[in-house]
């Protein structure tokens, strides 16, 4: 089975919770998608389960966004392939905490 190493940048509050630096490298089996990367992230850092996506519905939490290659991937299907530059490790998948206010 092909494996990919995907770089993920976490927002500060999730870094603190997982006790990691700003970037983690995750080994992802088969096709790298948002779902497979989040599965690998939650498997390696179980304390993050339920923080990025709902544990029951698996939907992204409202105040988190996913970016890669200067594109907002937040509304793409969770099983859509990530960009090749993310799969190759050249670019990271960025999980960003959104800010609301008025």
Walk me through the structure.
A hairpin with a 2-residue loop joins strand 3 and strand 4. This protein has one domain (3-97): Roll (Ubiquitin-like (UB roll)). The radius of gyration is 13 Å and the shape is globular. The chain has helices spanning 12-18, 34-44, 84-87; strands at residues 3-9, 23-29, 64-68, 71-72, 93-97. The chain has 102 residues and is an alpha+beta fold. It has a 5-stranded mixed beta sheet, with helices on one face. Helices cover 22% and strands 25% of the residues. The longest helix is centred in the middle third of the chain and has 11 residues, at 34-44.
Low-confidence stretches: none
User: Strand order within the widest sheet?
Assistant: 2-1-5-3-4
Helix content: 10-25%
CATH homologous superfamily heading: Beta-grasp domain
Tell me the fraction of residues in β-strands, as a range.
Answer: 25-35%
The CATH topology is what?
Ubiquitin-like (UB roll)
Query: How many angstroms does the end-to-end distance come to?
Result: 48 Å
């Amino acid at each position: 089975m092909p494996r990919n190493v995907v770089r993920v940048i976490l927002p500060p509050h999730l870094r603190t919770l997982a006790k990691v630096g700003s970037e983690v490298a995750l080994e992802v089996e088969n096709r790298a998608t948002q779902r497979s990367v989040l599965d690998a992230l939650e498997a390696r850092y179980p304390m993050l389960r339920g923080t990025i996506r709902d544990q029951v519905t698996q939907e992204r939490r409202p105040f988190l966004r996913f970016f890669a290659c200067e594109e907002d991937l937040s509304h793409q299907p969770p099983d859509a392939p990530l960009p090749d530059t993310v799969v190759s490790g050249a670019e990271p998948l960025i999980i960003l905490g959104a800010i609301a206010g008025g």
